[in-house]
Amino acid sequence: MEGSGFDELIQRLMDAKKSKASGKKVQLSELEIRSLCATAKGVFLSQPVLLELEAPINICGETTCSGDVHGQFSDLLRLFEYGGVPPTSNYLFLGDYVDRGKQSIETICLLLAYKIKYPDNFFLLRGNHECASINRIYGFYDECKRRFSVRLWRLFTDCFNCLPVAAIVDDKIFCMHGGLSPELQTMDQVREIERPVDVPDQGLLCDLLWSDPDREIKGWADNDRGVSYTFGADRVAEFLRKHDLDLICRAHQVSAVLFSFTFFPPKQQLCSSNGLRVMVVVQVVEDGYEFFADRQLVTIFSAPNYCGEFNNAGALMSVDASLLCSFQILKPYRGKPGGVSG
């Protein structure tokens, strides 16, 4: 598929927000998705496994630093409404683009198409669900098989095995999907991860995609997920000090913020942590993001009303050129499931 073909694909996917039939599948062919995966794979391999990025940038979680999107296509479109459509805004997504949502294929296709069109403005990190052994179970395999073929799922797997696994923004913000690893001593260890690679059951790559912070511990402890570790605030402070960083930005958890309600006065509130300024421009912060270790780590989750079962908000974090971080909150959609609201 030529560049103009990807432009048309992006337009077709973005036009879904105009449809009155919320959650309607976008017409896609297996041939164009195969071309999309092959082209995106080449783009990923042409860039480092540890990205070194510059602000301003949006970060999205679990999707501008973004957290998890988890196949919630209508909410991905809302994120672009809030943060700006590429390339007017730079984006970093922190992984978990598939599974659990109803339109994982539309979600990942739009993200891959934007990556191909704007390779130096649009970045995708690998999450633990960009792994065959996980998305084989949690919905993406079944969606591919039902709508297209198992062969297409394997092509997505080949593409996911080439995704970068971490990013550093302006030498100060370290981003990944999961968290820290007891094996991580130097950034060169991340740079030396060879791709394509499947996610192992243990070790550095596993931890970067699976580990979690834990307020109840110091040091390291076994993770209740049965994979990787949890780490305490002391490990965060030690890691930042050793590597001259200000903030760790990660995704991977919605449960950590489901019942966190922090009230601020109805005005901007500024705080400082290791020279990094954080600005919250909301009156009531519910879900979407949560700080840890004296604001030295932030968890971002960008899929509101996760799986249609949790009344959580989603969040998008924007980092400006001076490393001022601001959050936009995406409230759960109150209309029909899967609909788009501003």
TrEMBL record:
UniProt entry tagged with the keyword Manganese: yes
Stored InterPro entries: Calcineurin-like_PHP, Metallo-depent_PP-like, PP1_catalytic_subunit, Ser/Thr-sp_prot-phosphatase, STPPase_N
Gene Ontology CC terms, in alphabetical order: cytoplasm; nucleus
CDD domains assigned: MPP_PP1_PPKL
Alphabetical keyword list: Hydrolase, Manganese, Metal-binding, Protein phosphatase
GO MF terms held by the record: metal ion binding; protein serine/threonine phosphatase activity
Gene3D superfamilies cross-referenced by the UniProt entry: 3.60.21.10
Domain of life of the source: Eukaryota
PANTHER family hit by this protein: SERINE/THREONINE PROTEIN PHOSPHATASE (PTHR11668), SERINE_THREONINE-PROTEIN PHOSPHATASE (PTHR11668:SF416)
Similarity-based family: Belongs to the PPP phosphatase family. PP-1 subfamily.
Protein name listed in UniProt: Serine/threonine-protein phosphatase
Annotated source species: Ensete ventricosum (Abyssinian banana)
